[in-house]
Amino acid sequence: MKVADASSRQPAGGARLLAAVGHRPTFDRHVALYGELPAGCDLIALIERAGLRGRGGAGFPTATKLAAVARRRGAVVVVNAVEGEPASKKDRSLLRVAPHLVLDGAALAAEAVGATQVIIATSTYGPELTAAIGERTSKRYDSVTFDVEPVEGGFVAGEETAVLSALSGRRANPTLKPPFPAEQGLGGAPTLVQNVETLGHIALIARFGSDWFGRGTALVTLSGSVAQPGVHEIPVGATLAEVITQSGGTTAEVAAYLVGGYFGRWIPAAAATQTQLMPDILGAGVIVALPSSTCAAAECARVVQYLAHQSAGQCGPCLHGLAAISDAMHVEQRGDSRPELKRLGRLVSGRGACRHPDGVVRFVDSALAVFAEEFARHANHRGCGKRLQGILQVGATR
Amino acid sequence: MKGRRLNVLVDPIACDGHGLCAELFPERIALDDWGFPLVDPTPIPLALKDHARRAVNACPKRAVQLVRAG
Q: Which of A74, A130, B2, B44 sees the fewest Cβ atoms within 10 Å?
């Protein structure tokens, strides 16, 4: 599925989405780098062959989502640029480095689902996005319109139904699914809600084909004890150890890596060479190297407290259950609360309108498993002799 | 027969934890630590349908529904 005349412009080297780093994000520069948008491709079939999965965290197959919206009439496209993970910066970075690539992807997706309106919902955006929309509008380049809508940020605010609530002028709270946005989204219209990075990949696959895409690349945000914190583009399928080495290595002894963000999982440092980074484990693309010098139990307790505060407070089991879990995570005060954490996890999981409680329970389970020794020491009031360094970022509470 | 089997479905956003459903339909609904309904997903036999219906009607938030099992 290679597109012949564009093949000479395939970005060389590892950077695809970030190939424009160091250049001004103008339209001309964008076209010089990637070539013009191809006309008339069967986008949904192409995306299906590429096996692209959403890069917002849930990892849902993109072609399935596109097809569900394309089946219905009067669709709208929403670009989800509400990056709720406190440690994630990849989406806002891509919008600054390659706004035209994201807009290309949104325009292609809109065409594929029969939409004429693209709304970019974002809580933080730079001048590059509005400049890029201005350039395209003055050239009459697209058959769709682009509107940037500033919306409330926060951890759950990036959940797709929460984004739609915010766009409708309500609090950025999730709603019950079904109805799914593809069935009944913004103003009741079938709505395609797609993550920024996902749209960037769509723009590349449409140009260079599914064979070229291969397993694809992924944007990750590195933080913690790494030499080069920030956004990196990595080949999907690389091991965690390869990614860390190729991005400059670590700056301290690492106890474990958090992969995927706060709904992700902990990987012990010793397992980094065997851990392949596939879309399901990459989640929202956050990788944090937690140094051995900080108290892992306290770091995790602080994150759980933050996540409990981020509950929209709509569902009783989430509101009360996460508060109870957060309480039990503070082992210094509570002693051995590990059995209680397991019980609360089973009680709360799956009982919210969205997956927020499930994600928190997964984080807790993973922390208890990977830092078992540390939690055991705390449970017996022996402590670990380490202080909380605040490596795991927590954002502002709502 | 299978098509007529029913399940209880609670809308967790609408539910405020009044707890009437658990009192009226204890065969399938219990309450958690905070008074919110825990639903047993075992399909409801016809003999218990009236109990289920009472729970649905008593909810002041209209958060309880009967849906087809499956």
A: B2
